Amino acid sequence: MASANLAIVRSFTLKYWFDTEKITDVERLLKEFADTHPRAPIRVGGFGSFPPNVVFIDVQLSDEAKKIFGYLIAELKTIDWMPWDRYDAENLHFHATIAEECNEKFSDIWYYVQGKEKYFDTYFDNITILRATKRVKNYDKYEMHKIFILGQE
Prior knowledge:
The chain is of the alpha+beta class. It contains 3 helices and 6 strands.
């Protein structure tokens, strides 16, 4: 897993950020969820973007991973204070950010990654809560708060 000091932690997004003083609600739900759901295959590779700020690696979920994600979202929606964005849940584009706040450097970064695509198969095997630790320029630095391994009791 990634260093706690990285601004971009190696991960793919399952739910966009939210502020809360009630993180134990989420931790309890995720522990139970992880204990009762298996890991599932995913394919990682190819590049995408949210111009002009973000370049990412695409994450394609298998049918099994899509089902598990759907179950996860249904569970998270039982937390009445949890905010939902227009890009969350069924509208989420699965991705792993590799560059953010690109702005004027976006076209250079996009040009650089072209032709460098790699693909590999791996697993959706954990759910990790990331915590913003500080703000640097226009983005947050994150560290892992807690990790929940799917299919382990």
